[in-house]
Amino acid sequence: MKLHWLVALATIVLASSFLVQAQPVVWRVFSDPSPSIDKALCTCLSGDNVYVISVENGSTGRIEVRDKNTGNLIKVWRGKGEFYTCTVTGGTLYVGGGNVLATFSLELYEKGRVKLDYAVMQVATDGEYLYIAGWKRLRGNDTAWVIEKRDPALKLVKRYLYNPSIGDEWAWGVGVNPATGELWVVGELYNASSKRLATREGRALILNRELELQRELKIGGEAALAVAFDENGSAYILTAGDILKLSKAGEVQVASSEGLRPGWLLQPERFFNYILFRNLAEVSYSFFNDDDLYNFTNRADFPLGCGITLQGYFYLFSGELVDNRSNHALYVYDENLKNIFSFTLGGEAERDYEFPTGLAVTDGLNLYVAGSDCAKQGREGAKYDCRWVVYALRPAFPVNVTSNAPTQLAGAGWYSPRETVRITAPLTVEELPGVRYVFRMWKVEKPTGSASQANPSLELIVDAPVNLTAVYTRQYMVEVVSPNMLLRNLVRGEGWYDESTMATLSIRNAEVYFSGNVTQGYCTWGCSRASFEGWYKDGKLFSNNPSIVILPVNESVKLEARWRIQHYVGVITDRGSAEGEGWYDDGSYATVKLTATDVDAGLVTYRFERWEGLEAGDVVVERGTVRVLVN
Questions:
Q1: Which among 60, 42, 59 has a CA at the least distance from the CA of 51?
Q2: First CA to last CA across the chain, in angstroms?
Q3: Are 154 and 132 in contact (CB under 8 A)?
Q4: Distances (CA, A) of 530 to 151, 527, 548, 629
């Protein structure tokens, strides 16, 4: 019956790709009042209090009041009644279970209860009246949905029966659409009159507040178990095979189904119990009176799942099966019912964690939900000890920030849905001399797809888990050392190169004439010239070709462009002639010599007196001969 919800949970667990082990848990508390089976089955909110509806020791009703900010226990009620649904309105707590509906003050003083002629499945309110959904045996194996409207004093206002076929019909969930005020009731139709012809169908009814049927919806081939609404009135129906999103008018908009098979989430032992119970329920009505039947059915609480909507997302608390053992987990769906995020809420070894079927609750900021964990007891493990686990969680998505460059980037952490993250990546990151990383783009990865942004300043609305990667390109410096700036300017190709790319170095002119820092055409007097000799690396000739290719560039490169630099030494004399004028290597000595130191000009003889233009480093060898330092 309710157990079919396990199919959808298996779908969720196996479809998730953003499963992490940390979570923004506000608080988590345990309650273990007995050494036997203690199970939390429902939560309600009122003011600063969370009400946890549960069963103690397998059969005793238990209600706990806890502070919603801390989880601290405030008060406990224990008594007759196995309740598993609740709602709060008008300062009163209403609880239901089996065929009983009861009222309590918010301080947990019981105000009254009524015994019903049907099994209560869920209670909802529009703030004025109570609406109860359940099912009733009419005759034999023929059951019908029961939908009731009752006033705050539990007085019956109106009843609606839904019995479209001779067979089993069960109503499992009820909710009031906040946008339309209409009542939605979900459940299933099951006809087991013939094993070969047995049919099962999910069904939803939309009724007005006077319980007049407005629309009947066929939900598919599995049970519809619970219904939740968002602020726009869209309905989210949990079925035995998937989650459906419907418009407020009842049109199916999208489904989350992944087509997985039933029972994948259950341990084999639990799945066998489920199959056995389902088969018994089809044939065993005649063995129970009505009261026993309703209570027997309601105690069949298997691990199902609790859902709730908040800020455009659907949250499902369910299980994650690991090593034949289930952990508590939360699954988050976007508006298109894509499972965009999942994370475990923690679990101890040798314990089996589960959530009941139904709805979680929210105060608009946090989510509140209660489940159970169980461990086998005794030498043979024939008994179970189960305790409550109650959670308060703040919805948030993880933002992971990484980079392929050696830099620390801020911005990683948990962000509330639609909160803005702002991160700026440095344009360059220096690693070592001659090695750097240059920013290229932000890579943005979400469950719905990937995108990129070239701007290093990223501003992003966090609407899903996101991995942000600052993508850098590693670069190496190809540096050329030259004797001076003039010759350095003749080099082409020096600079930063992306890793594994090709660097091309070339010399614009293999021979150049210059005067001072200005290049000239061919010249002699007052000029110097440079002739390219080759590329040298670590003092050794690398290549004498004026144009070279370095491939691939996978390290920083430092080359010397070696030049033969010469200076022109000119000699002027107004008498006679001189030897030694011409081009000389930089740093060498030029020997300049007059051909004659005495020049006979007829009546006059000219005798050499001195050299002009000598500088430090020049050496006068003898009269008329000098060694000039060329630089």
A1: 42
A2: 103
A3: no
A4: 106, 10, 19, 18
pLDDT score of 22:
43
How far apart CA 529 and CA 251 sit, in angstroms, is 88
- CA distance to 479, 503, 559, per residue, from 496 (Å): 8, 9, 14
Structure tokens at 188: 């299933």
Count of CB atoms situated within 10 Å of the CB of 28: 15
CB 548 within 8 A of CB 555: no
Burial class (CB in 10 A: 0-12, 13-18, 19+), 400: middle
Torsion, CA 104, CA 105, CA 106, CA 109, rounded to 10: -80
**What digits encode the pLDDT tens for the residues 486-513?**
999 999 999 999 999 999 999 999 999 9
**Mapped to the 3 state alphabet, what secondary structure does 374-439 carry?**
EEEECCCCCEEEEEEEEEEECCCEEEEEEECCCCCCCCCEEECCCEEEEEECCCEEEEECCEEEEE
Sheet containing 503-507: order of strands: 491-492, 503-507, 547-550
DSSP three-state, residue 269: helix
Q: Which residues contact 352 (CB under 8 A, 6 or more apart)?
A: 267, 325, 326, 373, 374, 375
Give the span between the Cα atoms of 15 and 12, in whole angstroms. Answer: 5
Going by the DSSP 8-state scheme, the letter that residue 7 receives in this structure is H
- Rounded Cα distance between 425 and 403, Å, is 9
Q: Is the peptide bond before 552 cis (omega within 30 degrees of 0)?
A: yes
Q: What distance in Å separates the CA atoms of residue 488 and residue 510, rounded to the nearest whole number?
A: 12
pLDDT in tens, 314-351: 999 988 877 777 888 899 999 999 999 988 887 777 78
Contacts of 215 (CB under 8 A, 6+ apart): 205, 206, 249, 250
